[in-house]
């Protein structure tokens, strides 16, 4: 899918392009390619003289492969953007090419973005740019606003994580945690821990991208200050993710502690039962020997009830003692 964005009356307008002829009708500042076809890549090369590399969205981690400036002045940035899907949170690699040498748009340049699926941050920026006049002035501003929206999206997701952890806290700290409930809580906490880790990685990547833009000396004074503000926001997000990691670890430890308590209760019951059954076992062992016992001869036919009652009493007395000491609760 090929979408272009043009500025009109200070607002950003979107057009979906289906042919090379349509592409030539507009002078965009942002060209967005979502899962581009070979034909769409050919249109970009033919009209803008820009070749979209086949490895644009490869998972390279080396900074030299993700942030660099070509000899012709094109700026290449590969950055990750978060998709906080409830069932499958993930990050999407987006390749940016900032072209500042286009003759028709020499003053504003053109930003090209290539990615495999729609990104929530892109939708957020499109919505804002349509409603807020003067939000974007050039292609560099588009890129900065995307990173700014990415930081805000991460912040909103962190708030959602905190809300989910608060719900888990209520369940864990209620004091009545069954093994089934503990399993549910641990699964929920694990999901939030995974999402929190993805956010931390995402904001780290955004910091690197914004820092590269600042080092490239392509930003004017106002844009440079905006980039510094984005870095300050990211710094606060880093602190918040660290706080959430601590909270997650606490809840995990507390939940595992309740599981251990439940298991200890079961083990305690078995231990008490085994100790309580030792005296009856001793009685049965003694009277089970092939010997003649005087008391049984005296009791005659009452010998059997006598032994049974003795076994019951020898089990009841330890159980009563354990109960009085509070070992059965």
**Secondary-structure element sequence?**
EEHEHHEEEEHHHHHHH
Give the spatial strand order of the biggest sheet: 2-1-3-7-6-5-4
Helix content range: 55-70%
Binned strand content:
5-15%
Unreliable stretches, pLDDT < 50, 5 or more residues? Answer: 103-107
In whole angstroms, the N-to-C terminal distance is 66 Å
The main sheet comes to: 7 strands, mixed
| Structure summary, number of beta strands | 7
Present the secondary structure layout:
Elements: E1 2-8, E2 11-17, H1 20-23, E3 30-34, H2 38-48, H3 63-66, E4 67-69, E5 75-83, E6 90-99, E7 110-115, H4 120-131, H5 139-172, H6 179-215, H7 221-276, H8 278-287, H9 294-299, H10 303-324
Parallel strand pairs: 3-7
Antiparallel strand pairs: 1-2, 1-3, 4-5, 5-6, 6-7
Helix pairs in contact: 4-5, 5-6, 5-7, 6-7, 7-10, 8-10
Structure at a glance:
The protein is an alpha+beta fold and 329 residues long. It is 60% helix and 14% strand. The radius of gyration is 35 Å and the shape is rod-shaped.
Descriptive notes:
The chain is of the alpha+beta class. It has two domains: 2-261, no CATH class; 277-324. It has ten helices and seven strands. The protein has helices spanning 20-23, 38-48, 63-66, 120-131, 139-172, 179-215, 221-276, 278-287, 294-299, 303-324, and strands at residues 2-8, 11-17, 30-34, 67-69, 75-83, 90-99, 110-115. A seven-stranded mixed beta sheet has the order 2-1-3-7-6-5-4. A hairpin with a 2-residue loop joins strand 1 and strand 2. The protein is rod-shaped and about 120 Å long.
């Amino acid at each position: 899918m090929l979408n272009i964005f043009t500025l009109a009356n200070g607002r950003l307008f979107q057009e979906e392009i289906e042919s090379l002829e349509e592409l030539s009708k507009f002078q965009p500042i942002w060209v967005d390619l979502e899962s581009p076809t070979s034909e769409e890549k050919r249109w970009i090369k033919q009209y803008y003289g820009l070749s979209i590399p086949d490895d644009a969205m490869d998972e390279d981690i080396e900074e030299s492969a993700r942030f660099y400036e070509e000899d012709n002045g094109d700026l290449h940035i590969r950055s990750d953007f978060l998709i906080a899907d409830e069932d499958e949170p993930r990050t999407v690699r987006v390749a940016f090419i900032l072209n500042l040498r286009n003759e028709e748009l020499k003053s504003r340049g053109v930003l090209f973005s290539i990615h495999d699926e729609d990104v929530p941050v892109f939708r957020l920026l499109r919505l804002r740019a349509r409603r807020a006049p003067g939000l974007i002035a050039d292609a560099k501003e588009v890129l900065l606003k995307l990173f700014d929206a990415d930081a805000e999206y991460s912040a909103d997701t962190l708030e959602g994580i905190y809300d989910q952890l608060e719900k888990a806290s209520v369940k864990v700290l209620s004091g009545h945690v069954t093994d089934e409930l503990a399993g549910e809580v641990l699964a929920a906490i694990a999901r939030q821990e995974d999402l929190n880790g993805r956010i931390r990685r995402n904001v780290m990547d955004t910091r690197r991208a914004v820092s590269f833009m600042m080092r490239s000396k392509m930003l004017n004074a106002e844009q440079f200050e905006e980039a510094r503000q984005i870095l300050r926001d990211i710094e606060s997000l880093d602190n918040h993710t660290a706080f959430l990691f601590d909270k997650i670890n606490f809840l995990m430890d507390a939940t595992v502690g309740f599981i251990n308590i439940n298991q200890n209760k079961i083990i305690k019951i078995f231990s008490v039962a085994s100790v309580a059954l030792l005296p009856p076992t001793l009685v049965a062992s003694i009277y089970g020997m092939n010997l003649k016992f005087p008391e049984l001869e005296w009791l005659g036919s009452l010998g059997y009830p006598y032994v049974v009652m003795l076994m019951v009493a020898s089990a009841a007395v330890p159980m009563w003692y354990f109960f009085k000491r509070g070992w059965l609760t």
